[in-house]
Amino acid sequence: MSSLLTEGDLTHEENVVWLEDPDHLDYVRQALDKTPRRRNRPRYARDGRMVGYAELDAAAEADPDSGLYRRRVFFLLPHDRDARPEGLYREGAPGEAVDPRTIEVKKVGEKTPRSQSGPTASSRSSV
């Protein structure tokens, strides 16, 4: 599913569940996945790891063709900054990356200096 989300995609979110403490992450990738249930931990079929997911309210309807629900999933890949601080995303971030501190129910996460440039970005910009 698309990783470029709008608040219209999140209308039926009821809760965001974190599997890891988001305060320790510069960014997370967010995407909409199709899942068979509104709630509980969805299956994860990417490389890397799921760090959180959204649960949907009772009014959320499944796609009539597939019977699946579209839910937001937060994840990191093996080459992301948390695992490889000097790697590909030492500076910069993938397009779907947002600061996990800005994620709220029904609100698309935001890009911040920390998510886009790392934890030292704020100290560099104040020099």
Describe this structure in words.
With 127 residues, this protein is mostly beta strands. It has a five-stranded antiparallel β-sheet with strand order 1-3-4-2-5, with no helix packed on it. The longest helix has 5 residues, at 113-117. The chain is built from two helices and five strands.
Summarize the entry for a quick read:
The protein is mainly beta. The protein has 2 helices and 5 strands; from the N terminus they run βββββαα.
Neighbour order of strands in the largest sheet: 1-3-4-2-5
pLDDT average, as an integer?
90
Overall geometric form: elongated
Find the count of extended strands (DSSP E, 2+ residues): 5
Biggest β-sheet strands, sense, barrel: 5 strands, antiparallel
Tell me what portion of residues adopts beta-strand conformation: 25-35%
Given helix and strand content, the structural type is: mainly beta
Compute the CA-based radius of gyration: 15 Å
- The helicity comes to under 10%
In whole angstroms, the N-to-C terminal distance is: 40 Å
SSE string, helix = H, strand = E? EEEEEHH
Which stretches of 5+ consecutive residues score pLDDT under 50?
123-127
Q: Give the number of helices.
A: 2
